[in-house]
Write a structure and sequence with these properties.
Helices cover 26% and strands 15% of the residues. With 158 residues, it is an alpha+beta fold. The chain has a single domain (3-157), classed as Glutaredoxin (3-Layer(aba) Sandwich), CATH 3.40.30. The protein has a 4-stranded mixed beta sheet, with helices on one face. 35% of the residues are buried.
């Protein structure tokens, strides 16, 4: 399996175009707008601006499973991301990342036989995916987007 094997919808509900992820290095992040870690949006957007032209994208995955910190609908999420953090990277429709209703992508990412197994612990957990669609690294929610280890791992894949 690889990242592009999973059907994802964009925030507004339409299918996420294949060109959004295919052949790119992707930092997949479950996001929330009312979390203490929400300021990471600025760092994520900076990564998008710094590396986007080199075949990289952040993919934000809104999730409301941690403290109810992403209660908004698609319009509210989009407006928050644009007005508060000037987000230009793609966002998916809101999904569950844990439990029986978790999205199949997250079931794959966190499975016992996955490269980096284990349930998602909180908002802003990060998976770095190579151009081949395979997971190359996993970073905790508290790892900021400008963390040297994250940046080095990202640069090594470009």
């Amino acid at each position: 399996m690889k990242l592009t094997d999973f059907a994802l919808n964009a925030l507004e509900g339409e299918p996420l175009p294949d060109t959004t992820l295919a052949g790119k290095v992707v930092l997949l992040v479950n996001v929330a707008s009312q979390c203490g870690l929400t300021p990471q949006y600025k760092g994520l957007e900076q990564l998008q601006r710094d590396y986007g032209m080199r075949g990289f994208t952040v993919l934000g995955v809104p999730c409301n499973q941690f403290g109810g910190q992403e209660p908004g609908d698609a319009t509210q999420i989009r407006n928050f991301c644009r007005t508060q953090h000037d987000v230009t990277f793609p966002l998916t429709a809101k999904v569950d990342v844990n439990g029986p209703g978790r999205h199949p992508l997250y079931a794959w990412l966190t499975a016992e036989d996955a490269t980096f197994p284990g349930a998602i612990t909180w908002n802003f957990e990060k998976f770095l995916v190579g151009r081949d669609g395979a997971v190359k690294a996993r970073f905790s929610p508290r790892t900021t987007p400008d963390d040297p280890a994250l940046v080095a791992a990202l640069e090594s894949l470009l």
